[in-house]
Amino acid sequence: MTDSVAEQTALAQAGATGEPVEITAERTEYSSTTANPDGSFTLTQSTAPQRVRADDGSWGGVDTTLVRRADGSVGPKASVVDLAFTGGSSSGKDMIRLGSKQGSVSLGWPGALPEPAIDGATATYANVMAGVDLELTATAEGYHEVLVVKSAAAAASPELEQVSLSASGEGLRVVPGAGGGLRAVDENGNTVFKGPAGQMWDSAGSQQTVSQSARVTAVDDPQDPAGGGNTTQPGVGDSTAVLPVHVDGEAVSVTPDLGLLRGTETVYPVRIDPSVGLGVSERSVISSDGDRWWQFDGDYGVGLCGNADGYYCGNGYKNRMLFELAPTQLAGKYVLDATFRAHETWSFNCNAHWVDLERTDNMTEGTHWPGPKDLDQMGDRNVSYGRGDNCSPSQPDSWVEFNDNPAEPDENLKSTVRSYADGKISRLTFHAQGEGRDRRESLEALRRQRGTQGQLCVPAGRSDQCRCHPGERQHRILQAVLDGPIDGDPDRPDGAGPCSDQGRGAQGR
């Protein structure tokens, strides 16, 4: 275990070496702070966990690979929650146990569960009903629970007309959530875990053929960009239905849509999923065709998904991407500037089109299309990146930065973040949209192997006069960074300029 580095130590080391030094004493699963050589500080706040703290205090990467434990349960190697799946049970008790420092909740299956087959982050319990498998998948912050109905004969079972699970808690209680979801709250009513309404989908997308296949080239499925057959979320072309979760005493249940479950045009397997995760921050992709991906994990696009310039993406639906968090470290600081930046990985053609960043009302696990009410314009950019040598000159993937343009007084990102720091608003909620665009924009999260990154950069002083005194800070908040480590960008000027005794006018851009 590496010794913890305190603020003043990191500040002295940064000044002596000319290099940023992390204040490891302030590190969390979701944030890190570095001291910079100029006396400023950089806070990196993420909407998904970037690291996990072990029992001995050391830090390591998130690893949701399941392993069998000495107590007979199955759980992820490293996640930010205490998660355990049963290793097999004659009663189905403690099928899932999800815990944190505040307490835990347990869900039980109404019958025996066999020993699971393990594949990566997923434990599969075969034939929990005739022709129905149960898949439990660990995430960094929770789990997905998916019933896989493999045939029409299996779908005809009366057992599937309502799926009920027992629910119990230690220090937490399960209550109804927003939009038909559920929440686990502590004794003061604070949400610790939450999940959206359940969702079910068939496999129609896997059998779709593109009628114009002789004339167009299919691009990556935005819902399964790796082509690996994501079984925890619906893909393009799958028929879907939303299933409100009912909470009744010590039981939770969902009622599947029988029209989809047993329809004459249903393509099997059909999957049924109510998922639950940690309520630290939120992110979601919402689609005009009714689909949504709360706490999504993967590469998703924003804008129109249809046909353009010889490429096929989907049937013409639109996606929006929502990010919400509350960087409490900004409280009481004076915000000098703010930048949201994202990495565009693909566009349907070489012509630039507008992409917008809006501030919205707060979101919940129940948010669906068209999303929260727009409140203010944060910025827009006219861009086209990601096609590489398909364009002349080449257009590689690239960062897109949203920062207040002095020539456009309706762009208010800095003042919005300043209002948050002053306590005038409780959370920062943004959505990226590219509607009406004839291409797919990917303004999204950093991925370790593929994908993109979104960041909100906020230089700020410790006082509203931004007068520098020993130990005073400026902050750059790097926000909406999902599922990956944060890398520096040596080609971008530092957004956190030195404080000035001239007062509020000092800023680094």
Distance, first to last CA: 39 Å
The structure class reads: mainly beta
Q: What does the largest sheet look like?
A: 11 strands, antiparallel
Approximate helicity band: under 10%
Whole-number radius of gyration?
Answer: 24 Å
What does this structure look like?
With 509 residues, the protein is mainly beta. Helix content is 6%, strand content 37%.
Short descriptors:
disordered C terminus, eleven-stranded antiparallel β-sheet, 5 helices, mainly beta, 509 residues, 38 strands
Short description:
The chain has 509 residues and is mostly beta strands. The strands form eight sheets. Strands 11, 12, 13, 14, 16, 17, 18, 19, 21, 24 and 25 form an eleven-stranded antiparallel sheet that branches. Strands 20, 26, 27, 28, 29, 32, 33 and 35 form an eight-stranded mixed sheet that branches. Strands 8-9-10-15-23-22 form a six-stranded antiparallel sheet, with no helix packed on it.
Write the layout of secondary structure elements.
Layout: H1 7-17, E1 21-22, E2 31-35, E3 41-45, E4 52-53, E5 59-60, E6 63-68, E7 74-78, E8 82-85, E9 96-100, E10 103-108, E11 117-119, E12 122-129, E13 132-138, E14 142-149, H2 152-155, E15 163-170, E16 173-176, E17 182-185, E18 191-195, E19 198-201, H3 204-207, E20 217-218, E21 240-243, E22 245-248, E23 251-254, H4 258-261, E24 270-273, E25 276-278, E26 282-287, E27 292-294, E28 303-308, E29 311-325, E30 334-335, E31 339-344, E32 353-360, E33 374-383, E34 398-403, H5 413-421, E35 428-433, E36 454-457, E37 460-461, E38 477-478
Parallel strand pairs: 3-38, 20-29
Antiparallel strand pairs: 1-2, 2-3, 4-5, 6-7, 8-9, 9-10, 10-15, 11-12, 12-13, 13-14, 14-24, 14-25, 15-23, 16-17, 17-18, 18-25, 19-21, 19-24, 22-23, 26-27, 26-29, 28-29, 29-35, 30-37, 31-34, 31-36, 32-33, 32-35
